[in-house]
Amino acid sequence: MGLKYTSTRGDKKQYSASSAIICGLADDGGLFVPDHIPSLDVALSSLVGKGYKDIAYEVLKLFLDDYTEDELKDCINKAYDSKFDTDEFAPLVKKDGQYFLELFHGPTIAFKDMALSILPHLLTCALVKNHIDEKVVIMTATSGDTGKAALAAFANVKDTKIIVYYPKGGVSPIQERQMVTQIGDNTKVVGVTGNFDDCQTGVKKMFNDGALKDELASKGYRFSSANSINIGRLIPQVVYYVYSYVKMMEFGEIEEGSPLNFTVPTGNFGNILAAYYAKHMGVPIGKLVCASNINNVLYDFFETGTYDRNRDFILTSSPSMDILISSNLERLIYHSVGDDPQKNAALMKELTQTGKYTVDESARKVMDDFVGIYATEDQVFDTIRRYSKAGYVIDTHTAVAAYANLEYRKKDDTVSVVVSTASPYKFTANVLKAIDERFVSSDDFEMADKLCSISGVPIPGAISSLKDAKILHDTVCEVEEMKTTLKDWLGLA
């Protein structure tokens, strides 16, 4: 029997990779996890000189082992193509003595493109493999970047519909405009008068609503997700950590077997969890620096062992990280308690009922790979200014990680990579405010021009194309109206 996926919360049913991708979330509300983390079956040195797509195949074939070689390579080739503005897809650049892994060269200029470019192909292939005739409703909550990347990936994909909920007023103007101008007869965008956690909780409730699932089934629909709660989103993110290690060997920065640290700006915990999986595949990753903004629930967790969301929700200049309920942390908790779904389920129940839980020392020891550091708004702006003076303009989320990396390197000089998750053009106002407040204006496109002149980087098409794009989605609802909005759109009401 090959690798199987099970729920983090105790449902004993085993799923193939393709069926787990279709389901998105387990029936008991848990997340799918592999029954073991497979080891790389090739030497890292043998991958030196290989391209991103070649390395992607070597990783994905191990986690998605019910896909044939032809199926996987077809999905990879369709995902990583001319929609990216660089042939490298995920370039590693050295600026001011520090390496940055640029994950924002896809069609929506954010790191979510790296996995969401392949997810629709994995999903549609999975439907055929599993002889499923129902149409799939992709339902996703976003803190800013996942929404547009998912919409762009699934727009006009046969036998799918996608609805995205985002916190109205809780994303950047560019992020919102990217979403509300999305074309595609199968797309729907809804602003919610709440924060991201409200959106995410509402989506999870609908996933677990048996009556709603029955209504969908009666109309020939089934739910799935494009969030990183879907294992088909998480696993492709493992690839760029393997790729980064190989490239750093190729650059002569490390030898095979030497540790390499990664600093990751973290909100919902999927991106840094993918690095943890890469490490446990056998990549010699050292520390994983979990970089938070002042919504520092994860920093407190790694410091104390207590996860406590009972605190003020703060809107910051890095909105994609304004999260107090980090869904993917559940997968790490599951692994840290010995892959025990009952122990994990008890902690998740405690989180739902009290807003917090505490893990024991044995679990904390398993999580020793992680270090938490957070950045204040002033520290974020100072970091943007620092790198701008060195000739490299970074966005606010990358700046959180860059600050955390600088702090951690004061006590650990291991070679490191900062994961750069978004183009500065997605957050022009705050980037320019950091560089020189006089550059800030009420016109996003005027600010993009200014940022272009400062950075020397051309304005991405993902931004310039928005100038004359029509607003196609203007629905706004209360948190308690999310289900009604979905049913109205699908014609179930």
Description of the structure:
There is one protein chain. This protein is of the alpha/beta class and 493 residues long. It has a domain at 92-110 and 232-456: Rossmann fold, CATH 3.40.50. Helices cover 43% and strands 15% of the residues. The strands form 4 sheets. Strands 3-4-14-9-10-13 form a 6-stranded mixed sheet, with helices on both faces. Strands 8-5-6-7-15 form a 5-stranded parallel sheet, with helices on both faces. Strands 1-2 form a two-stranded antiparallel sheet.
Oligomeric state of this protein: single chain
Characterize the overall form.
globular
Supply the number of helical segments.
21
Major sheet strand order? 3-4-14-9-10-13
Say what the CATH topology of the domain at 92-110 and 232-456 is. Answer: Rossmann fold
Termini Cα gap: 43 Å
Rg value: 21 Å
Blueprint of the fold:
Elements: E1 5-7, H1 17-23, E2 32-34, H2 52-63, H3 69-79, E3 92-95, E4 98-102, H4 112-116, H5 119-129, E5 135-141, H6 145-154, E6 160-167, H7 173-180, E7 187-192, H8 196-207, H9 210-218, E8 221-224, H10 231-250, E9 260-265, H11 270-280, E10 285-292, H12 297-304, E11 306-308, H13 329-336, H14 341-354, E12 356-358, H15 361-366, E13 370-374, H16 377-389, H17 396-408, E14 416-420, H18 428-435, H19 444-455, H20 461-464, E15 475-477, H21 482-490
Parallel strand pairs: 4-14, 5-6, 5-8, 6-7, 7-15, 9-10, 9-14, 10-13
Antiparallel strand pairs: 1-2, 3-4, 11-12
Helix pairs in contact: 1-5, 2-3, 2-10, 3-5, 10-11, 16-17, 16-18, 18-19
